[in-house]
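Observation: inputs received (chain + S-adenosylmethionine).
Thought: call the complex predictor directly.
Action: predict_structure
Action Input:
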Amino acid sequence: MKRKWGLGILGALGLGFAVVRINGKLRPGPMTMKLEQFFLTNPVRVAYFGPRDALRLAGDLSGLRVLEVGIGVGVVLSEIAHRVGEGGQAYGVDIQSEAVRRTEHRLSTEGVLSRTGLATASATEMPWADQSMDRVIMVAMLGEVAPSQRVTALEEARRVLTPDGLLVITEFWPDPHYIPLAKMVRHLRQAGFSVVDVFEKPMLYSVSAKPVRAFEP
Ligand SMILES: C[S@@+](CC[C@H](N)C(=O)[O-])C[C@H]1O[C@@H](n2cnc3c(N)ncnc32)[C@H](O)[C@@H]1O
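Observation:
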């Protein structure tokens, strides 16, 4: 009986993943908010592919200005807002206004909205000043940006980072827009970053990188 349940759950997960992956190929770009809500907030995601590993290489965030690019429904940004504490600021941007609205609701419910700044904008053109962020975080985001724009989005992250700031990118394999680590490292080098550290576990990696070329306005 237990075996039947186990196989049923695995089958349902496999089918769900196949549907999302085919959908991702047929309709490139951001997932719909309904799919995001389901895939990003379920307990398996939060426990295994969640904020803990996404922020592992970001260090102590207290008192820092930390920007997440591609916030979805705010699962990672909420953790960032708690970690920066009252002396820090958490910023978030998403190309979908509905994502920003849902994140705002989440942060407000958790009582941390006052230390956050949210914007609806593209990763390739963000409304923050040069060198205004200590950390930039991207989780399962870059693969949703058109291939020709990915290095531009990383260059934009470099623009807003302080010279000693850190970019941390996390990708996990069930995501239909997953970018393999070797390809990500190539993108990072092209955009003027050098890799600092890599964390890997089955189906997930996180890579931290620092600007090697100072941003020239
Ligand atoms: C798979 S979700 C991940 C959300 C969040 N980082 C998390 O891990 O819970 C990717 C998000 O990136 C956003 N996104 C996609 N392309 C973007 C772009 N060019 N600029 C900003 N956000 C983008 C999507 O709208 C979506 O909300």
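Thought: report the result.
Final Answer: The pocket of S-adenosylmethionine is lined by residues 30-31, 36, 40, 69-72, 75-76, 93-96, 99, 122-123, 139-141, 144-145 (CB under 6 Å). The domain at 29-211 is CATH 3.40.50.150 (Rossmann fold).
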